[in-house]
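Duplicate of #3305? Posting structure anyway:
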């Protein structure tokens, strides 16, 4: 009986000692590392290994012999990606880490718009086709100086892509004009704006581009100019 009580007392004592371990001691035993991470933008989304875990700040746990990837995102700012590793022969993760977010230069060089990637009708009430076609060419060349295809008879014009690269994005823009009616004389103008989400993307890599709901400020007045001058 005494022997059984002795064994029980050892088990209970071990349990009490285990529960009284500090978080630092537990962390040391498990080998995992914890990082207090904060971002300069309090509303920035923080993802750990692809899972949204918080906004602005969070605790990052790096298991022993493993790595985690942290991504910090906010509209109007560049996406920040950090990898923390807890492995031998590698720099140990810091106890704290601060992410200073940088403005997205592509976002700042563009405007939100509902005129991109849609056909906009321009009705010519007082102009004949020759006059309207000459004016259309003049307006287009003011914004994009390379016309890839033009056919006055069918009333079709398409510019080459105009490319602009940014820190984390590449934007390509072109204009397409189509005559949709002869009586009354109506042209459809389309301002195409596409983004790759990566820097230095080739203009020919069509599969990497997607429609962008923003337009570079360089082209922000093109539609209003067509509306004002085509009458």
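Output from current build:
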């Amino acid at each position: 009986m005494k022997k059984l009580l002795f064994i029980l007392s050892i088990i209970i004592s071990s349990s009490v000692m285990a529960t009284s371990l500090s978080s630092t001691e537990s962390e040391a035993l498990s080998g995992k590392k914890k990082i207090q991470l904060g971002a300069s933008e309090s509303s920035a989304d923080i993802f750990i290994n692809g899972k949204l875990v918080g906004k602005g700040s969070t605790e990052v746990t790096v298991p022993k012999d493993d790595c985690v990837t942290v991504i910090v995102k906010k509209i109007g700012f560049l996406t920040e990606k950090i990898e923390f590793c807890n492995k031998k022969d590698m720099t140990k993760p810091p106890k704290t880490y601060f992410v200073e977010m940088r403005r997205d230069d592509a976002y700042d060089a563009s405007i939100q718009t509902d005129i991109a990637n849609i056909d906009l009708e321009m009705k010519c009430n007082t102009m004949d086709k020759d006059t309207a076609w000459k004016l259309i060419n003049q307006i287009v060349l003011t914004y994009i100086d390379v016309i890839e295809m033009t056919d006055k008879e069918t009333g079709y014009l398409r510019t080459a892509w105009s490319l602009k690269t940014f820190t984390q994005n590449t934007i390509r823009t072109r204009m397409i004009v189509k005559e949709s009616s002869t009586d009354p004389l109506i042209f459809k103008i389309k301002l195409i704006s596409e983004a790759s989400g990566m820097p230095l993307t080739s203009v020919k890599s069509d599969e990497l581009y997607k429609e962008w709901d923003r337009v570079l400020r360089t082209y922000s007045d093109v539609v209003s100019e067509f509306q004002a001058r085509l009458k």
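Confirmed duplicate; merging threads. The chain has two domains: 30-103, 110-229. The radius of gyration is 30 Å.
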